Sequence to fold (578 residues):
Amino acid sequence: MSEKKKELRSRHWYGGTDKDGFIHRSWMKNQGFPDHVFDGRPIIGICNTWSELTPCNSHLRILAEGVKRGVWEAGGFPVEFPVSSLGETQMRPTAMLFRNLLAMDVEEAIRAYGIDGVVLLGGCDKTTPGQLMGAASVDLPTIVVSSGPMLNGKWKGKDIGSGTDVWKFSEAVRAGEMSMQEFMAAESGMSRSPGVCMTMGTATTMASIVEAMGLSLPTNAALPAVDARRMALSHMTGKRIVEMVHEDLRLSKVLTKKNFENGIIANAAVGGSTNAVVHMLAIAGRAGVDLCLEDFDRVGSQVPCIVNCMPSGKYLIEDLAYAGGLPAVMNRIQHLLHADAPTVFGVPISKYWEDVEVYNDDVIRPLDNPLRAAAGIRVLKGNLAPNGAVIKPSAASEHLLVHEGPAYVFETIEELKAKIDDPDLPVTEDTILVLKGCGPKGYPGMAEVGNMGLPPKLLRQGVKDMVRISDARMSGTAYGTVVLHVAPEAADGGPLAAVRDGDWIELDCDAGRLHLDISDEELAARLASLAASDAQPMSARGGGYQKLYVNHVLQADEGCDFDFLVGCRGAAVPRHSH
Fold:
C-alpha cells in the first residue's frame, strides 16, 4: 500500500474550485503561467534580498534564475518575492537596527503566501540572520543560498581586503604613513565584482556557519559571487528544496543544538566575526533551542583557527574557495564536530567533508600549525559586564589579552570623534579606551563602532593596538584587542555607564574576566546617581520603528531580538482574504 502524501499547504490557495481558488489562480495567470502549474506541484518561495542599495546582494536576481531552473526541473513551481534588503555599507545609523524588521518581513510574507518551501537568498551581514530568524518562526522546509564573496581586491599589484585594509589604510593616513592620493586610489580597486566582503567578515562568517550547520548545500560559503559554480549551486538548491517539501524536512529538524554547536566550532576555525554571537543567539531563540552566551566559551574557545584569512590572517575568501572551501575546513576539524548532525541535504553533516582535500596548506592550516591554537570567541564576565561581553582573540594582540590600565572615557560616539585626534589627549599605550552609549538601545541598533580608531599621537609613536571596551559591535572585517557587546549596555543602566576617567580596569581573557576596580558600594552609588539624574542617553525621543526597537529590543547576551518575536509561531494557513 502506497503511503498517502501529505497535503501541500499551497493547495489551500490554489487547489479550490470556489471564488477564492479562482482569485488566487487567475491573478497569478496574468504573468503567463498555464493551468497545469497549479496541478498540485510544490510552490517554492524564493525570498530575495536583492537591491541595488545592497551591493553585496546586487546579483541575487541572477542567482534566483538558477534556483528557478532547479525548481522547475524537480517538478515544483518557483515564485520569487522581495523582502527588506539591508545594505551594511549604506544604511545609517546601522543595518543592525533593521535586522529584526527584516525578520518580521520574512516571517509574515512566508506565512501569508501560499508556499510550501522557501529558498533564502541573502548574504550581506544582516540579511542572512534576519531571513533565518523569520523563517525559523514559520518552520517550513527552508534552505539558504548565499551571495558569495567579491573577487579579491587589487591595488599596486597586491591583494587587498574589504574592511580590513580600509581600517589599516585609514590608520596609516592618520599616522602620516599613507597619502590621501594613495588612499583614494585604493578605493577603486577594493570592490571589483558583486558579492560580500572577501575578508572573513560577518557575511562570510554567517555563510560559513550556515554551511557548517547544514542549512545550505556544500561549498556555499566560499565560492565567489561571480563563479559559475555558484549559479550551478543555486540550480541544485532549487532542485533540493522541492525534495525537502516532499520529505517534510522543515527548518526545525535541522536547527538542533548539535547544529548550533557545529556552527560555533566552525566560527572559531575560520576566525569568524563576533557578530555571529548575537545572530546565532537570536536564531536559536526563534527555534526554541537552548543556546546561551556561555556555550560559545564552552564549545568554541579552545578551537584552533586554521583559516589564514583577513582579518586574522593574510589571505582572502577567493583563496579559501580554491583551497577547498568550508568542506575542507570541516574535514580538518571533523574530530571536534557532531558528525551525525542533520542537514538540508537529508544526510549527516559528515557527508559534507567526505573525501574532501585541502589544496593549500597555508590557506587552510594543518592542526599542528594553526594560525592560533585557541581562537574561539571568548566570553568575559565581571562587575563591568555582569551579563557578559565578548572578545575575538584571533584578531587581537597576544600581549594585550591580559592587561590592566586606566580608563579614558568617551560618553558618546560624537565625543570620541571630536577628541580622538587631539594631540594633547591624555592617553598612553597602556590606557584602556571606553566608549558608552553604543549598545542596542543607546545608538540605537548597536553600531559597528567598537573598534575605535587609535589616537594619532600614539600611532605616530608606533602603537598599533590598545585595549578598547564598549557596548557596541565591530565589523567582522575589523581587528584589534577590542571588548564588545558589554551587557547590560550603558543606556540600559549597565555598569559601563558608571566608568570614569582614571578608573582602573582589569582584562584577563584567559580567565574570562572584565573587572572595574572600584568597590561594589561605589559602583552602586554611581549607578544610582546616574539613574536619578536621568543622565543615560535616550534614543527613542521620536516615534516610528525606532521607538518600537528601543522599547522591545533584548540585550546582546540574548541576541538583540525583540522580546515579542522570540519563538516559533508556525505555518498555519491564515483566514481567507475575500
Q: What stands out?
A: The mean pLDDT is 95. The longest strand covers residues 402-410.
